[in-house]
Fold this protein.
Amino acid sequence: MNKVSFTPQRKKNAMLYVIIIALLLDYVALRSRTGDNFKRQAFASDDGRAIMHTHFEKTGHEEVRSQTVDTSKKRTFASEDGRPIMHTFFEKTGDGEADLLEAWKEEWTLAGFEARVLTLKDAKKHPSFTDMQNVLNESSIYLNGYNAMCMYRWLAMAASGGGWMSDYDTFPTNFPINEAKTLPNNGNFTSFQEHVPSLLSGTAEEWTRVAVLLMKSITRVESPNPKTDMHAFLVIKNEGIHNVMFLSERLHMEQGFLYKEALSHDSPRSVNCETMARGRAIHLSHKSIRDACLKGMFPVLDISLGMAFIRRGKAARIFLADWRHQCGGSNVK
């Protein structure tokens, strides 16, 4: 057999071909991992099939298996009629909560959103639901109580395809509707009230990832703080290593019934329009109810603190109607 002689030029060409082939293989591998749009999270493969992600984490005592579920038949972040979707999670655990939920649906719908309510049934669709129940059991958290429901909502969001979620005591004020049809920070998990989970966004995979982090961090919540999702989220924030974006409350969220002075039957309710012009939402939390009652700013007068919690829905409607009438409502379109 005759030997093939390689001139310097032929050797150079052969090396060039090898480099080109290697680059093409790298490109194909990169596309298979990230899709055409490298800056945005892809939720379907090139042929339209949903992508199943699997994520494994170790807790201090067991392996927690976490997966996002098949979302091929689920929605995008906008409804069929083009409205952005805002989710909340609800299971009745106290009197007056159902009316507050109705107020939540009314306000988000009025702001241009499709308001969707997730339940425990949605959380049970997630493969990690049993793992979360085990963690809650070991943390002595009543599985059907309020604090357990607050944990389950993270799995419900992941199982429903991810997106935006607000607590049902959080209402839109100056929320830019054009920013709501996509997720901020390329879908990476984002909290708009620091460690308070009142307004959150992320892809389904991110909701699963953070739910697993919460299962791990709830065991590290130190007394006297109760073992809740909020205090577990605070552990994640303080550790600062988990790639979760905690945005400043001062820039994005207001709290409470923002009247200028204490209310009475003899004086009109006067809203602080300057303060209400800030942030994209307002959180009427349990703490806000206590503070409003102490300062005389709860808009349902002559009731006890316990009854004020039950009448949160009515109080929210009164305050937000006052805001629209006196301040013109949202300052963004």
